[in-house]
Structures
1.
Amino acid sequence: MLAGEFSMFDHERETYDVVGIGFGPSNLSLAIALEEHRANVAGNEIRAAFFERQPSFGWHRNMLLPSATMQVSFLKDLVTFRDPMSSFSFIAFLHASGRLPQFVNNQDFFPTRQEFHQYLEWAQERVADRITYASEVTSIRLPPGTVPELTDRLRLEVTDVTGRGTRVVDARNVVVSTGLVPSMPHGAETDERVWHSSEFLEKYRRMDPAELRRVAVVGAGQSAAEITRFLYDELPHAQVWAVVPSYGYSVADDTPFANQVFDPGAVDDYYFGSEQTREAFWRYHRNTNYSVVDDEVIRDLYRRAYDDEVGGANRLHFLNLTRVNDVKRAGAETRVSLQAGLDGEVYDLDFDALVCATGYTAMTPGRLLGDLDRYCLRDEAGRYRVERDYRIVTDPELPCNIYLQGGTEHTHGLTASLLSNIAVRSGEIADSIVARRAERNADQAVPVEIGGDVR
Ligand code: FDA
Ligand code: NAP
């Protein structure tokens, strides 16, 4: 059975060397690394399948705003830092699209997110036989009737999100890459007029723009600034409020020395560094990514506010040093309780729509792992212990491998949730899977399933 086929029959079990959960750029990069391994090592194929809950490929589609650009160089694509000769590079994509000369004429390292999305779609088409879309992995367990030390596989339950039922697959290695988790202000819940930035375009398009006369955007990060600019431009009749916890947007440091924190070598410095070293990474370089905005977007927004003042038509309002305390909904009204930092005054404002560009929390596989979680070892702070090859450190009695692509900020540093290092990281995970398989084959322990089929 091919990965893309769907079986309603629980007993028709498929076994893969690798199952990837989630198919964003991280696992797309891994699928390519495994494909390139297959091409290089004939007869030693790694059987892989990837499950993605979206109906088709999508990379933060709800933030594909017209003028949004990438925050990493196009050279930090799916493959180049691992293998500059790969046929899956952004340059290969430009060449295939007949746009390479024009792109070079632009003299710009940072393509639009729309163009990079086209690149990702082009790349995923080439490994499409391994991906099943509209399929959410809901659990990872030991196969029933097995004891951990005598099984070499994990069992995953995969639910078809279009309601066609459930599928069960077995895997010797699982790579969890389910992405960042949207975070809302305390007490606020999303609905048709209160949106998190991760659902922005979808919910915005459901509204009649004429109804949006007073809109607010919360946050001082890249998402907040891009959405504020978008709403100001798209809704010329509307008043737009930016609720900014700082005194004003701060610039994302992407100067060359600071940018070294995203180099592949920085992962070793972080991983093998002392607690003090790791703390220094965050203390000095958090402003390369969190709660910061690209210089160009900041200047663009300031220019709009200034032009408003010159024209005497103020419709872009910055509520600085202000946080959202609470959100209440009544009919078409959204009442937002705001706390201003200067004197701590709390007051309410009503909006037709509220966008919470309030960031994300890190990926965690805890819910997927269920009971299996007790085999995963944690540090004193309760975080997963993770080996250098991104494998969760597990109780020795569990010989299966669970890898993380994301959720490893505490062990591998700032690139854990970003694109900067995915080419190298995916290569390292693919190498680890291959090496551990070779080790297992050499030891040739027992592939046994008690009370089930032996495969
Ligand atoms: P990503 O979130 O992309 O993919 C995870 C996938 O898993 C999703 O498609 C999701 O549907 C799926 N999934 C989740 N649970 C599942 C389950 N149980 N079963 C099946 N599927 C499941 N970084 C950077 O370096 N440069 C940049 O330019 C940007 N730009 C950027 C823009 C925006 C708007 C955001 C919000 C973030 C960025 N980032 C970024 C950071 C971002 O985390 C990064 O670009 C990638 O999305 C990371 O790719 P992943 O594949 O790890 O996660
Ligand atoms: P973020 O950088 O984490 O910013 C979230 C913001 O929300 C912070 O300023 C935070 O302030 C604020 N906030 C949280 N709770 C609040 C509250 N109750 N009241 C007021 N403010 C509150 O998140 P993001 O902007 O979504 O960025 C996430 C990632 O996506 C980053 O890596 C970013 O670079 C990336 N991104 C990239 C693009 C692009 O490529 N063009 C576009 C968008 C995002 P505190 O920190 O003070 O809590």
2.
Amino acid sequence: MKKKLKISLLPGDGIGQEISIEAKKVLTWLVKKIDLDIELNEELVGGASIDTLGTPLSNETLDRISKSDAIILGAVGGPKWESLDFEKRPERGLLKIRKELDLFANFRPAIVFEPLINSSSLKPEIIKDLDILIIRELTGGIYFGQPRGIEKIEEDNHRGFNTLVYTTKEIKRIAKVAFDTAMTRSRKLCSVDKANVLESTELWRNVMIETSREYPDVELSHMYVDNAAMQLVRDPKQFDVIVTTNMFGDILSDCASMLTGSLGMLPSASIGITNTGDTKAMYEPVHGSAPDIAGKGLANPLAMILSIGMMFKYSFANEAIFEIINKAVETVLKKGFRTKDIFSNGKTIVSTSHMGDKILEELN
Ligand code: NAD
């Protein structure tokens, strides 16, 4: 008997809503044409959840999504909720999912689709055939470290502070994921830190070196984050797998997105492994809710659609569907269809929903 796949879809805010409609089209196609047994449940997160439930992520929602086989999320945030207290903002909903489900390993592949070679601001020879993977630690570091806050020290003078903290255990588990992943690729791993000035990342580097002894076939290198940002745009093909901390990974992957042509092209998978060996996972585009283009049909849904492909690869061990989705994206791009963010002369500009329809035509 076929296993029912329980998937939670959290569209969130801004363009998260629009790209989720396109994600649903692809999932519906998979149910109809590949005969997959999928139970899709839509849930609230971010501003959408604040408006309805008064909180960016309710405990009931967290409970339901944690029981699903995989989670797909659009994006959260927007100007409407920016003046709320920090703990009540939409982004806290997303961080809560990552933390509560312990989704510590974030995979952010930056792959240049051949037809998009002219959409990048870099020269074609620099990015042709680019296929790199950034593995970002997602549940530790400065985004979660305590103490944090803003406090008054005297009249008209406040102190804002965050704590960059990593434990050996936190580093070790992301190191193992990174080395294991490097073993399945070109066996080259670059660890990015700032060990020259930050003690927590000095520990990061030491644990990476210690872990490398268990992986004699992987060539480990180290790079300071400032140099890595520069090298990513100078010669990105020198990298294969990059492993780095929460904040450095956040910044470097946005930088890497422009190698691929647009932030709207970068999917991601966030994975956690429980004590009993079960995996929990959430799939989402790297970009945010893009309030500047929300509601205008301008959002590129491809990062979201590629995230569905990653879900089939990582959560359901179905490489075939991953390949089918990637191929459909590549062919639609080859045929010249482009959302505005990846448009170049001579190509056909399409809206968010038109792009989703083109993907469906190709899947068919
Ligand atoms: P953003 O990623 O939303 O947008 C940055 C720029 O990229 C904008 O010009 C936007 O129009 C463009 N862009 C992003 N995705 C696109 C797509 N699919 N197609 C076409 N263009 C796209 O980042 P921002 O503007 O810094 O943040 C906006 C809001 O999103 C903030 O509230 C922020 O906190 C939130 N945010 C959420 C996430 C998330 O949900 N994972 C990630 C980053 C930012």
3.
Amino acid sequence: MIAPLLATLSTSALADKIVFAIGGTPHSLQGLTAQHFTDLLQERLGDAHQVEYYHSGQIGDERQLLQKLRLGTVNLAGISSIMPTVAPSFALFDLPFLVKDRDHLLRIDKDIVMTDLAQDAEEKGLHLVSTWENGFRQITNSKRAINVPDDLDGLKIRTPQSEWRTLMFKTWGANPTPMAFSEVFVALQTGVVDGQENPLSNIDGAKFQEVQDYLSLSNHVYSPIWLTASAKGWESLPDDVQSAIQESAAETQQWALAKGLELDNELVTTLEDAGMQVNQVDRAAFVESSRPVYEAYAEQVEGGQELIDRALSLAEE
Ligand code: EAX
């Protein structure tokens, strides 16, 4: 009688819960996406496993989530702009104006992310499950409208904790200040920083319009959010759980990109109605001053120039 009882116990102890976390707020696209995924996954897993979902950095900002994945206390996390700290090739998404639109993104995802970049992550002990959308990033600040890079001169702009995003803003003349997303609202409110850069749904999701006057639409980078596991943690999941995660994540990718497009179209009005002054940046001027970032990527990332060329060649298919 004892053997079957032990078998039951060990099965349930193995994977009775899947801990999943993101840094963003519930109302941001990544929050909506994470909830969508949680629901799909829970439906697939049924009663066998409980998906435990945390948002807003409740159990850690993205850097801490990376550590928790490695420690095994978190099974799945959404990791966005700090991915180049894992493997520098991910800074492909810190090359300004590289991603043309979401169709281009999907081609890059299939031909570069899920092959080359996923391999680089695997070598660093992380398993990429899927590429979701954080979104096209825009600049907000409390001082003035940003039209050309010179307008950023001396402005303190919060960036994610990635040297590539700080390099980008330094190149444009700003004074970048990296910090975790959950600290940004207070930093903007108290004037510790003048501005920040994020997709519209993160801006609205965290109510930055309450503490920022100017929204400059730059679309300077497309920032994905990667559903990530530790390589070891992933291997230790039962096959059926892996498949449930993979299938739910793939469905979620489609949902997220469609939702991202919808939100980009509607949130400019929402933010304008909230009192923000909105302008379009001079894209050509920004493209022109972004060259040093491409040069840095080609120099510092192994095979960097080839990745740039391949990504660019996927723009026109
Ligand atoms: O949860 O840190 C950031 O600005 C990123 O956009 C992050 O994904 C927000």
4.
Amino acid sequence: MQTIIQKIDADQFEMKELDQAANILKAGGLVAFPTETVYGLGADALDAAAAAKIYEAKGRPSDNPLIVHIASVNDMAAIAIEIPQEAYQLAEAFWPGPLTMILKKKECVPYGTTGGLDTVAIRLPENKIARELIAHSGVFVAAPSANTSGKPSPTKAEHVKVDLDGKIDMIIDGGKAILGLESTIIDLTGKIPVILRPGFITQKMLENIIGRVEVDPYILGKKQNENLVPKAPGMKYRHYAPTGSLTIYEGDTQAVIDAVNLVAQEKILCGKVVGIIATDETKIFYKYGIVKTIGTRKEEASIAAGLYDILREFDKLKAEYIYTESFADNRLGQAIMNRLLKAAGYHIVKVTK
Ligand code: TXA
Ligand code: MG
């Protein structure tokens, strides 16, 4: 299959530029498109055959449900039932934006979209191309991240191309995904709302609107505990991983730098390609390997935005060993560390002074 690549300027475009993409979606095809979090791989959510194509293209396990993207809050009632008041309050506060809500599904949503579950994940994205595309196509758009299953999520159209060229009908290149980490997922089907995946919308922000919110203990674990099963099926799979072996170094900054310099030098002496994930503040102190900065510690959002891109950069450079600094585990840091730990297969080294 020849994948069409279409550039669209997110700040200035006309509806007719989305005609072809909308027609592909209507006809049951696959279109990758930008959102504010990461690029999504879209298909008609109510068409089981179209949704099946997503699993095929990504190599995604069939029990891992898809998020259904809508263009207006009113659409929620078209695919969900028994919608609690909290859902409307959260929609009012955070939509359009990086929040996904789990609700009970309506019969019209096929099990092929929900991975066999009676619930459905719903999100109204902020990105203008995404929203206009959904509205223009007239279908609800099931869209996981547009990467090969297990790889880092795509934050640029070129990332999508590397993974899915020739496997999907179209890629809309709308520039960089500005946030760079997937949406926060909150499950509203139980007595107490539970965060299943951390993101930009934090527990505190959610609690400010609807009161008590819990966090699925699975995502707080620094080690994957065999006895904990995540409520979002996707969270159990190895994820976000670069090809090289990634290790996180945690502790006093100087001690981390010293330890990384030592291990990097050892690997290089053995002829290995080594990548270092530094920050603007520490970059100059690393002496060995290919040193790249992920962002500045003064602005957590810059680190979130740079994470997947830097992992993919090291794939391109064929890094066999990648060493990264660790980040604070609160607020947005919780989302960053959640992804980094999974990318590293929970391989973390604690260093002391
Ligand atoms: O920011 C995002 O959410 C991006 C963009 C494209 O919107 N999408 C995304 O989709 O990250 P994906 O498929 O990579 O992640 C979806 C996650 C998976 O962990 C999946 O298990 C969970 O959402 N999920 C989907 N439906 C669910 C449901 N009914 N119950 C529990 N978890 C669900
Ligand atoms: Mg994903």
